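SAMPLE LOG
Freezer: B-3
Tube label: C17
Construct: single chain, 71 aa
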Amino acid sequence: MKVTTIIAFILVIIGAIVWGLVGIFDFNLVAMIFGSGAEAVVSRIIYSLVGISGLWLIFYSLVYRPFRAIN
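STRUCTURE (predicted):
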């Protein structure tokens, strides 16, 4: 895999863990570490990177089809 795809995959896994914590325990780890409200610039950057990573993995799976059957 390319480095970009590996980084995107790691960020998506981290995002899934954060959303799992929000859904199950109502605990936002990113907001706790980097702040929330008006001063949450770092939090917004992290959320944006996770979102871009998800879009990259969708694009990667559509273009390169890594899960296709090998004949």
